Amino acid sequence: MTNKKNIINVDSEYGVDSRYKTSKEREHDSVALMEARLERIKKLPREQVLRTKLLQLKLKMENYLKEPVYDKQNHFANFLETYVDTIYSKRSAFAKDINITPVFLSKVINSHREPKEEFMLKLMIHSEKVFKHVGEFHKGTWYQIYYHEKLCDTMSNQNQWRPKIEKQVKLTESVVK
Q1: 92, part of any domain
Q2: CB-CB contact of 94 with 81 (8 Å)
Q3: Domain span at residue 62?
Q4: Residue 87, CB half-sphere, CA atoms under 13 Å: how many?
Q5: Is residue 160 part of a domain?
Q6: pTM, whole model, 2 decimals?
Q7: Which domain of life is it from (predicted)?
Q8: Between vectors from CA 125 to CA 110 and to CA 71, what angle results, nearest 5°?
């Protein structure tokens, strides 16, 4: 797009329509815009901010489940950390609410321990209660996140485990003749 004198560049990084002659003008307006946005966010009720953060988390989780991810990041732990830190000011309060020790929660969040089945069930029920007034949240989402990560890790690391395991697998009967 162009007008008579200036090239119009829509710069999504700054969130402003850039019709500026210098980058300094553009940056000044982008800072002013961001300050105005932050001021507006500060005035929102806590409940609305919480609802927005939870919906954002839900959408990130759903997007994660749509595609295979082959990185070394522990997505389950990251999603759990965001979930807990969004709702509670202290993680120990969440641990108390689902009847686990704060130490166990810390170990799961920091990827030092795998979540137990009982933990997953409690997390599922807790999420149902939290999202009841926010929006639809599929009951199996936490399980799907956890096992999606495991599947992606397993498939992306075949070169490490496959040679050893393949030696142990034999086919003595012909399946198709």
Answers
A1: yes
A2: no
A3: 50-155
A4: 20
A5: no
A6: 0.72
A7: Bacteria
A8: 35
Residue range 68-116, pLDDT digits in tens: 777 777 789 999 999 999 999 999 999 999 999 999 999 999 999 999 9
Question: When comparing pLDDT for 5 and 127, which is higher?
Answer: 127
Of 105, 139, 103, nearest to 119 by C-alpha is: 105
Q: Which residues make beta-bridge pairs with 55?
A: none
| Number of domain units in the chain | 1
Rounded distance, CA 9 to CA 53, Å? 31
Residue-wise pLDDT for 121-156, tens only, equals 999 999 999 998 888 888 899 999 999 988 888 888
Q: What is the DSSP string of 105-146?
A: HHHHHTTSSPPPHHHHHHHHHHHHHHHTTT----TTHHHHHH
| Whether the Cβ atoms of residue 104 and residue 113 lie closer than 8 Å to each other | yes
Residue with tokens 């000011």: 89
